[in-house]
Design goal:
This protein has helices spanning 48-68, 72-85, 89-100; strands spanning 3-8, 14-18, 36-39. With 121 residues, it is of the alpha+beta class. The longest helix has 21 residues, at 48-68. Bound molecules: zinc ion (ZN). Residues 8, 10-11, 13, 28, 30-31, 33 line the site of zinc ion (ZN).
Amino acid sequence: MPIYEFRCEICGKVFEALQKMGEDFPSCPQCGAKEVMKLPSIFAFRDRSAYRSERERAILKRARDYLIDGKVKDARRFLEKAKEFYPTDKIKKLSDTLAERKPIKGGYISKPEVVITKKKG
Ligand SMILES: [Zn+2]
């Protein structure tokens, strides 16, 4: 079985795990989150700020994916946790925005900074 490197999108832990083809990604060994990302084998950021902004983007993207799927509760839970480990302004703002609003079935969060467009196809 090949060993892959994963990174937790919530707490940022990078870890290795054995994985079979088609198997679900492992949970994070540090915080238990299922939101982990498989890293390409050659994966390096030249500097820490690039890493940080990439990570923030990954977190925001994951939250938006939940919202696009209508999973507002999941998005909120994910952001609550992400905020603990990685409290950037954007993440906090999105988390607060969601916390204030009641979930609407199939609804979007329509604040200007969180415009979500459903992809077709
Ligand atoms: Zn984690």
